[in-house]
């Protein structure tokens, strides 16, 4: 099973998350950053073009062998699906079509009862060896699907029900007109690109504690080009009202706040270090006692 991780519990802290206080300091020094707030008018066209690309790809993959279909899903389709998942994240911050009032920074980073990005205690205990962490990385998409149902379950909203109906209808149309292979291409790509895949390295790189005392990490490499700059993660949490396309400008304006913090240079290396380093594992996350469900 490999070497066991050395951590036996999460990193419990009793301070507020660091981004709100740093944002205040940065804005006092660089008030021009406020000009970067607001939606990106080009975002909807970029995301729409990616959706269209995937739809066109369905007409190609329907004639592929299963082996080549899996290769295409891992190397192409899964990357687009993963990028579109991050597009949803961008939309959740009202950065696609704008918002009528300033964004309130309601971050519950590390909250034991609200932050569904943190592994459950069962995950941390089960996947506490080198091989266990390898399996955990491969199974990440399933944990992201089902963990919120355990940590912070909520009844489905009207829009979520409508979205489910639309998705099922779209899937049924794919199968009816193109067969099962295109649908498999979409599903397999999503699962693979959220697991043991270079792009999926951002899941671990963002908040797993590779350096004690630091709970958010940025990555400034080329994979940002296809992930809406999600690698600029300290910048994103400091200024959630700034769209991904403008996050590099935040770093350019205030480099002394970001260049001195620990950062990752490779998401692939993040995956390797997470699996192989006994000091890192599902327990390597900062947690805070529940603050309550403030509105």
TrEMBL record:
Membrane topology term: Multi-pass membrane protein
Entry keywords, A to Z: Lipid metabolism, Membrane, Oxidoreductase, Transmembrane, Transmembrane helix
InterPro entries hit by this protein: DES1/DES2, FA_desaturase_dom, Sphingolipid_d4-desaturase_N
GO molecular function, one term: sphingolipid delta-4 desaturase activity
UniProt keyword Transmembrane helix present: yes
Domain Sphingolipid delta4-desaturase N-terminal: 5-43
Pfam families per UniProt: FA_desaturase, Lipid_DES
Name this polypeptide is given: sphingolipid 4-desaturase
């Amino acid at each position: 099973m490999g070497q066991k991780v050395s951590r036996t519990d999460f990193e419990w802290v009793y301070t507020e998350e660091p981004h709100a206080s740093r944002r205040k300091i940065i804005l006092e020094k660089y008030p021009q950053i406020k000009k970067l707030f607001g939606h990106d008018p080009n975002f909807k066209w970029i995301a729409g073009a990616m959706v269209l690309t995937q739809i066109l790809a369905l007409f190609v993959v329907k004639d592929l062998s299963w082996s080549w279909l899996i290769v295409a899903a891992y190397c192409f389709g899964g990357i687009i699906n993963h990028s579109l998942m991050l597009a949803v994240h961008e939309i959740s911050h009202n950065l696609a079509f704008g918002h009528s009032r300033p964004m309130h920074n309601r971050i519950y980073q590390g909250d034991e009862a609200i932050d569904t990005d943190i592994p459950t205690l069962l995950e941390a205990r089960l996947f506490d060896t080198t091989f266990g962490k390898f399996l955990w990385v491969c199974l990440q998409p399933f944990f992201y699907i089902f963990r919120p149902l355990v940590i912070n379950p909520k009844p489905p909203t009207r829009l979520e029900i409508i979205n489910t109906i639309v998705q099922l209808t779209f899937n049924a149309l794919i199968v009816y007109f193109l067969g099962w292979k295109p649908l498999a291409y979409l599903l397999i790509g999503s699962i693979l690109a959220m697991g043991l895949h270079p792009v999926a390295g951002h899941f671990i790189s963002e908040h797993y504690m590779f350096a004690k005392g630091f709970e958010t990490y940025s990555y400034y490499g080329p994979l940002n080009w296809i992930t809406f700059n999600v690698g600029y993660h300290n910048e994103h949490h400091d200024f959630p009202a700034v769209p991904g396309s403008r996050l590099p400008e935040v770093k350019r304006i205030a480099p002394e706040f970001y260049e001195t913090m620990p950062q990752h240079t490779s998401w692939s290396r993040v995956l390797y270090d997470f699996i192989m380093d006994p000091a890192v594992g599902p327990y390597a996350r900062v947690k805070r006692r529940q603050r309550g469900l403030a509105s």
